[in-house]
Automatic annotation (TrEMBL):
Protein name from the UniProt record: RNA helicase
Annotated Basic residues bias: 741-750
Full-length numbering of the shown residues: 314 to 1063 of 1063
Gene Ontology BP terms: mRNA processing; RNA splicing
GO molecular function ontology, one term from the record: ATP binding
Keyword check for Nucleotide-binding: yes
Keyword terms: ATP-binding, Helicase, Hydrolase, mRNA processing, mRNA splicing, Nucleotide-binding, Nucleus, Spliceosome
Organism: Marchantia polymorpha subsp. ruderalis
Length: 750
């Protein structure tokens, strides 16, 4: 660590730094005594040492006295039984002293904005307080979360605190997983699920209180929820026309709406809800030293790993939280950390690595909350789910590479992709704050102070302004809301994006030329899927292959965690994967083959192991599939099966995804057909070496370039057949193939 101030009097951390140096010295001395093998391991750590510059701190709000007092309290409590302890823990939360005041405010006002630091107990406590005060007598208390993992983990905690079984009095509901029952009075759910509930219950009749939590995240669903609440519950979205639902809607002067947020810019929420009062919960926070790197880091994953090791070897006890952009990075980091700590020997404490990301199976999610044993150090590798949604006690060190994965949408080209982007200053501050919840901490920012000042935005742009709104528009139309331009969005999406969405839904046949919902649209809206996927399912009826298409949809929905590729067995894994691609059927059909083969083995776990397939992902696909299959009947789609008719299946896929068509160029890259953009087949695709002339892709991911992930080959004439209102014959004329030797283009097709 580099000294910043030459004059220590100017440096308030001189003492601490000296102490740290002492620690590093001690660690080095220890290495001297260690055996040869582990010494080498240590050397590499210090060779790679990253230099940080310490620049500033957050104001501390607690002094050491208080800290010791807290510690004493905590020790006293440890003796108590687990349940009693939980009750005591509840009383220790910053929220607790404000319990009565909060209840009074809820009683007095219909809408209340609640602001409190992450970890103060908003999510877990407020619904319980309201329940204790009798609000569950006439309805449920709902609490929305932007992320599924948060909904699951928080409800589990609350069930534990209330001493009930999860799914009984306390439950959660996320897409494709409903863990609630008749008994449920506290219901945690994703904001997306609440949106879907509006479709069947636009006045939220079964709820007495709705808490829209983590409102600062400003997800599309939260923003749309706000608008819907105004229209359906308060009747003050007056400009908006509601047609058919109006008659069945009773407005809800009795429902309580709580909007809770971890950031301080609550005025905006308050203003949006006609000046609703703001209830502020004073935070408890310890000082956090912020350290920046001296120079930009070329490889933030490597830099993060090295920093974890540095902390582990040289710094006093305390857990570490590292922010990565997604599951792949987290898994990579986990593997590297495991390899590099293997040789450390017994002198250095154990490192417990806990990953946490959206698709992590629930049995592994609880691991991050387990107390760290004495002498060990927990290292949590998280996506930005740990930024505000989840609070992990005991974190003392935060490593922030400064990136997150964000959706980005270009309404001009209609292209949406996930891009790794620098976080905003507000997000960086939230991340830093995670280090100072239970004691003073340190935050290692893997970027320079200059980058922070000059390259990072102040706030994250609300998702509604950078995403495809097909989904939202279909939902609003299904609710009878026609005038989207005048819908009261907190931050309106670009008009171009709305138009694009209308246009797309029209092309899919979900809206007619007057912008009204068609029968097709009504059927599509039944599925909790993106319109293109819903269309693919509804279209499968015509092609008599609903069973297969539903399987493909489920596999696509699980995402990219089907195939498993361990570092030391990559060749075997790749061979196993390629088996499913025989005949160059394309990725969708390969996924179908994976599922059907698994089904043939009666869902054997052993089979998954042998084929390098993640059994957990497969089970999830099976669950999703069961639910989608259940919906087929509701929209009167015959559950026909026709696994060998690849053309029919591909045509059904094309019916939903004709937008995503690309044509091969001479140089081996592709060009999207409408609004031409250069794209490439992702190396993980079974077709990445085959390079068919015409392809339809499922999604784009941007890494080093724009990649198409999940690709099938199509015949261009299908486009005119399937989407005549979108493609004309001239769009798909295969001029290039005419110049080629006869049949070459076609040979690849057949
Ligand atoms: O919502 P807010 O950030 O204000 O706090 P919370 O999520 O209600 O968390 C309150 C406390 O419960 C924290 O100390 C968390 O660590 C703890 N908690 C937990 O131990 N396990 C969970 N699954 C969720 C929260
Ligand atoms: Mg919370």
């Amino acid at each position: 660590y580099k000294d910043v101030g030459a004059d220590d009097k100017l440096n308030p951390f001189a003492e601490q730094e000296a102490w740290e140096k002492h620690q590093i010295g001690k660690a080095t001395m220890k290495f001297g005594a260690a055996d040869k093998k582990s010494q080498d391991d240590y050397e590499f750590i210090f060779e790679d040492q990253i230099q940080f510059i310490q620049t500033s701190i957050l104001d501390g709000m607690k002094d050491e006295e208080e800290e010791k007092e807290d510690e004493k309290q905590i020790k006293k409590l440890a003796a108590k039984s687990a349940f009693d302890k939980l009750q005591e823990d509840r009383k220790m939360l910053p929220m607790f002293p404000y319990r009565e005041e909060l209840l009074k405010a809820v009683e007095q006002y219909q809408v209340l904005v609640i602001v409190g630091e992450t970890g103060s107990g908003k999510t877990t406590q407020i619904p319980q307080y309201l329940h204790e005060a009798g609000y569950t007598k006439n309805g449920k208390i709902g609490c929305t979360q932007p992320r599924r993992v948060a909904a699951m983990s928080v409800s589990a905690r609350v069930a534990e605190e209330m001493g009930v079984k999860l799914g009984h009095e306390v439950g959660y509901s996320i897409r494709f997983e409903d863990c609630t029952s008749e008994k449920t009075i506290l219901k945690y759910m994703t904001d997306g699920m609440l949106l879907r509930e509006f479709l069947s219950e636009p006045d939220l009749a079964s709820y007495s209180v709705m808490m829209v939590d983590e409102a600062h995240e400003r997800t599309v669903s939260t923003d749309v929820l706000f608008g819907l609440v105004k229209v359906f519950l308060f009747n003050n979205g007056s400009v908006v026309m509601i047609s058919f639902v109006k008659d069945i809607t009773r407005f809800r002067p009795d429902i309580k709406l709580l909007i809770s947020s971890a950031t301080l810019d609550a005025e905006k929420f308050s203003a949006y809800f006609d000046g609703a009062p703001i209830f502020r919960i004073p935070g408890r926070r310890y000082p956090v030293d912020i350290l920046y790197t001296k120079a930009p880091e070329a490889d933030y994953l490597e830099a993060a790993v090295v920093t974890v090791l540095q902390i582990h070897v040289t710094m006093p006890p305390g857990d570490v939280l590292v922010f990565f952009t997604g599951q792949e990075e987290i898994e990579a980091a986990e593997e590297i950390l495991k390899t590099r700590t293997r040789g450390l020997g017994t002198r250095i404490g154990e490192m417990i690595i806990c990953p946490i990301y959206a698709n992590l199976p629930s049995d592994l999610q609880t691991k991050i909350f387990e107390e760290t044993p004495e002498g060990a150090r927990k290292v949590v590798l998280a996506t930005n789910i740990a930024e505000t949604s989840l609070t992990i006690d005991g974190i003392k060190y935060v490593i922030d590479p400064g990136f997150c994965k964000q959706k980005s949408y270009n309404p001009r080209t209609g292209m949406e992709s996930l891009i790794v982007t620098p976080v905003s200053k507000a997000a960086a501050q939230q991340r830093t704050g995670r280090a100072g919840r239970t004691s003073p901490g340190k935050c290692f920012r893997l970027y320079t102070a200059h980058a922070y000042q000059t390259e990072m935005d102040d706030n994250t742009v609300p998702e509604i302004q950078r995403t495809n709104l097909g989904n939202v528009v279909l939902m609003l139309k299904s609710l009878g809301i026609h005038d989207l331009i005048n819908f009261d969005f907190m931050d309106p999406p670009p008009a171009e994006t709305l138009l694009r969405a209308l246009e797309q839904l029209y092309a899919l046949g979900a809206l007619n030329d007057r912008g009204e919902l068609t029968k097709m649209g009504r059927r599509m809206a039944e599925f909790p899927l993106d319109p293109m996927l819903s269309k693919m399912i509804v279209a499968s009826d015509k092609f008599k292959c609903a069973e297969e298409v539903v399987t493909i949809c489920s596999m696509l929905t699980v995402g990219n965690s089907i195939f498993y590729r361990p570092k030391d067995k990559q060749v075997h894994a790749d061979n196993a994967r390629m088996n499913f691609h025989s005949g160059n059927v394309g990725d969708h059909l390969a996924l179908l083959k994976v599922f059907d083969s698994w089904k043939e083995t009666d869902f054997s776990t052993q089979w998954c192991y042998e084929n390098y397939i993640q059994v957990r992902s497969m089970k999830r696909a099976r669950d999703i599939r069961d639910q989608l299959e259940g919906l087929l009947e509701r929209v009167e789609i015959e559950a026909a099966s026709n696994p060998d008719d690849h053309e029919a299946i591909k045509k059904a896929i094309t019916s939903g995804f004709f937008y995503h068509t690309a044509k091969l160029q001479k140089n081996g890259s592709y060009r999207t057909l409408k609004n031409p953009q250069t794209v490439t087949i992702h190396p993980s695709s079974g077709l990445s070496q085959v390079l068919p002339r015409w392809v339809v892709y499922h999604e784009l991911v941007f890494t080093t370039k724009e990649y198409m992930r999940q690709v099938i080959e199509i015949k261009p004439e299908w486009l005119v057949e399937i989407a005549p209102h979108y493609y004309k014959k001239s769009d798909v004329e295969d001029t290039a193939s005419q110049k080629m030797p006869k049949g070459r283009g076609r040979a690849a097709m057949d």
